[in-house]
User: Which sequence fits this backbone?
């Protein structure tokens, strides 16, 4: 019996993707927790940064939105949206920014939909929309994507392309006029996917302990290469201790 | 000289004077912080209709205005209030029912659009949107754009970099300026002339404020011009941009106002519950907005105990260890 939840696993796996010196763009929810975990566990010199303009937030308490006053406490600077997105679009600072995103749908090239299900003009389901996600996905050096591992979310064809991944393959971003890097990892409640250096297609990199390759594939709407899959390292006692007691003691995001 | 004197107004008067049916309007703040909620509730009470609302991620204010039926068209980047409503629920319902027309942009694009309005240029370039459906899918049709003089003919325009490869950029996306009839922002401090000071993140409030023909500033504290001019480095908006100054303590409640109070988690959660079905939402509208005279009465209904619980710690700017579950 494992002694951690899948949300804890996801936060820890994402935190391990973050390195000292990275400037982390955080969205709402688990991405904030991942950044807090990275800062407290493995990358104390990463910079937590919000599209609202907060730069190098201390985060004594977990914020519940990117405009939460908790992101404003003991920052290097409290600016605004123009400054934050400028930092990401900037040809020098943008290279250091790692974006963490989530979405309602993802395709095999890591393109994301967070706008609508169904026809755009008469949507079956309306979501929040891009917010800063399109900007982040367009500008920064790499993105980490959180997804729930469900067939309806891993789709062959997005209903709406909100945020660009690798678009239609190796030259997709270049042809569209985008610079910057694309998605580097998709972290789900079952597995970690990465993108092939040549084809830019998603492949299964790691399955969480106790989860089979077959069950990962069964919960996706398209086939992925599973030949490179290994078992993911479970969270260590120290990682869990910091995540639970330091990052989210009220379990506002961990649930 | 009309922008120089006599600007100190009651909220009812400011809204009645500057927010008219069909107005193009933008609202300051971001998701659950520093939304000018007192003004939003007053707009709802005065029954304004057919508003053309511009927003980046102004969650709570947008959802309340949409929910109350004030909005006809919405240009927006994000309709959500963080954990309390990852997608604003009345916004979602209104779009799905076809009750409002929506045009989607990204947050940076909306920011640049306000900035272009503030700067007096017709558009600004960016590198957002390339390869995405933000460019290809238009919420406002070509026909509507041609017949409506307040809308640009194109949603946005992709063009080759006119300076060749200068800036290592092959293509740019041009986004059209926004100029509003009225913008409303809530700030921590202002004087009677309209000099205004925002503490904490300014979001895109300054750009929004300056893209407006008329600007209403609601403030937590009304202070003397002498106090504002003693520390000008902290001031964000000069008096001549402002048409109305309204002193409304807790004017952002139930959203937060950095340094003064936190968002009210109980209210936002209750709001999310009310929004889920129409009869419950009608009850909310009646009990919390329409049958309430003004913001003071609203705050009395909320109660001093709740307001005490969310009072900001002077050091952190928020309510430490507030129960937010």
Assistant:
């Amino acid at each position: 019996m494992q002694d951690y939840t899948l949300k804890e696993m996801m936060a820890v796996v994402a935190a391990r993707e973050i390195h000292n010196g990275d400037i982390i763009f955080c969205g709402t929810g688990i991405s904030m927790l991942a950044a807090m975990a990275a800062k407290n566990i493995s990358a104390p010199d990463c910079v937590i940064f919000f599209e609202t303009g907060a730069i190098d937030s201390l985060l004594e308490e977990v914020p519940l939105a990117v405009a939460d006053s908790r992101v404003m406490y003991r920052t290097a600077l409290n600016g605004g949206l123009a400054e934050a997105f400028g930092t990401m679009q900037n040809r020098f600072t943008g290279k250091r920014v790692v974006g963490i995103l989530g979405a309602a749908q993802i395709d095999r090239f890591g393109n994301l939909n967070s706008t609508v299900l169904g026809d755009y003009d008469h949507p079956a389901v309306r979501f929040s929309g891009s917010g800063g996600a399109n900007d982040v996905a367009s500008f920064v050096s790499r993105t980490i994507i959180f997804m729930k591992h469900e067939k309806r979310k891993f789709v062959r064809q997005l209903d709406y392309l909100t945020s660009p991944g690798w678009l239609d393959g190796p030259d997709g971003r270049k042809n569209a006029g985008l610079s910057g890097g694309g998605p580097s990892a998709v972290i789900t409640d079952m597995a970690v996917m990465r993108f092939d250096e040549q084809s830019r297609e998603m492949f299964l990199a790691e399955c969480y302990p106790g989860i089979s390759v077959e069950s990962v594939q069964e919960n996706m709407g398209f086939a992925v290469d599973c030949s490179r899959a290994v078992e993911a390292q479970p969270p260590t006692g120290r990682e869990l201790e910091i995540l639970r007691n330091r990052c989210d003691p009220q379990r506002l995001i961990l649930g | 000289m009309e922008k120089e004197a006599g600007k100190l107004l009651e909220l009812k008067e400011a809204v009645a004077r500057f927010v008219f049916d069909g107005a193009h309007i933008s609202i300051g703040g971001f998701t659950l912080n520093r939304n000018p909620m007192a003004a939003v509730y007053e707009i709802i009470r005065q029954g304004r209709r057919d508003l053309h609302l511009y927003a980046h991620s102004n969650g709570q204010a947008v959802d309340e205005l949409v929910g109350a039926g004030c909005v006809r068209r919405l240009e927006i980047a994000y309709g959500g209030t963080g954990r309390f409503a990852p997608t604003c629920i009345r916004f979602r319902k209104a779009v799905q029912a076809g009750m409002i027309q929506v045009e989607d942009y990204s947050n940076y694009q909306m920011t640049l659009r306000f900035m272009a309005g503030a700067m007096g240029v017709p558009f600004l370039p960016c590198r957002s949107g390339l390869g995405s459906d933000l460019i290809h899918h238009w919420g406002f049709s070509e026909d509507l754009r041609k017949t409506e003089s307040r809308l640009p003919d194109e949603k946005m325009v992709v063009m080759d970099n006119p300076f060749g490869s200068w800036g290592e950029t092959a293509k740019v996306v041009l986004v059209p300026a926004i100029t509003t009839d009225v913008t409303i922002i809530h700030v921590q401090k202002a004087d009677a002339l309209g000099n205004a000071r925002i503490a904490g993140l300014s979001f895109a409030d300054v750009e929004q404020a300056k893209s407006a023909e008329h600007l209403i500033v609601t403030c937590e504290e009304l202070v003397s011009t002498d106090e504002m001019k003693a520390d000008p480095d902290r001031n964000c908006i000069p008096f001549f941009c402002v048409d109305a100054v309204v002193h409304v303590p807790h004017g952002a409640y139930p959203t937060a106002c950095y340094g003064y109070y936190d968002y009210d988690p109980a209210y936002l959660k209750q709001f999310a519950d009310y929004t889920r079905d129409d009869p419950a939402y009608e009850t909310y509208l009646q009990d919390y907005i329409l049958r309430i005279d003004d913001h003071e009465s609203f705050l009395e209904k909320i109660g001093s105990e709740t307001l005490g619980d969310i009072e900001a710690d002077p050091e952190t700017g928020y309510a430490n260890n507030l129960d937010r579950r």
In short: The mean pLDDT of chain B is 96.
